[in-house]
Amino acid sequence: MHRFTEPALLITLIAMTTLAAAAGLLMRHGFSARAEPWSGEAFIARHLRRLAIPAGARTSANPIPEAAEVIVEARAHFADHCATCHANNGSGETAIGRSLYPKAPDMREPLTQSLSDGELFYIIHNGIRFTGMPAWGAEDPKSDLDSWKLVHFIRRLPKLTAEEIDEMKNLNPKSVHEIEEENDIKRFLSGEEVQAHHH
């Protein structure tokens, strides 16, 4: 009969105690996205991106040369599709970005900027399970090009100018309420009667 050695028994007891404590906390407090993650969970969340990317994708090179027109197109795409969660400047400081679990990363920081072009492309195109990042790639080969262009724009995020951010604000999606307000202003300026809206 195999006997546990003292160190193995001690490690097993510590592991079982830790799991029991974690299960107790989970049962008592639930698994809400409102709570701040504990350090182990935060570590896992930060590294999910790398774990989700196949080794072969990491070495993929961007097939689209960086050019001014590529940046302009990608900036408009980012403002319209990505800024709702990531903010125009890539900070993740939006109502949705802060409410995700894990929170949307600040893409200007080294945790994102140190990823290879292939890793950024893979994340945009395929998403990451267990996070708020969906897969934006499609069967259409044009979506590959759009994702590669976004990689160039993500590289530009730490150097965005105030003018670029202002330009992006005009391209952000608008809520129904914002559209109604704009239409009311147009009607008011043209002399029409403005209806009251109830929300």
Q: Whole-number radius of gyration?
A: 23 Å
Overall residue-averaged pLDDT value? 84
Question: Can you count the helices?
Answer: 11
- Helix and strand succession? HHHHHHHHHHH
Major sheet details: none
> What fraction of residues sit in β-strands?
under 5%
Number of E-state strands: 0
Unreliable residue runs: none
Give helix % range: 55-70%
User: What is the straight-line distance between the termini?
Assistant: 73 Å
Overall shape: flat
* Structural class assignment: mainly alpha
Descriptive key words:
199 residues; 0% strand
Architecture blueprint of SSEs:
Elements lengths: L5 H24 L9 H13 L3 H4 L9 H14 L1 H4 L8 H5 L10 H4 L3 H10 L14 H16 L5 H8 L6 H14 L10
Characterise this structure:
- By secondary structure, the protein is mainly alpha-helical.
- The protein is about 60% helix and about 0% strand.
- The model has no long low-confidence stretch (mean pLDDT about 85).
Describe the structure in brief:
The protein contains 11 helices and no strands. By secondary structure, the chain is an all-alpha fold.
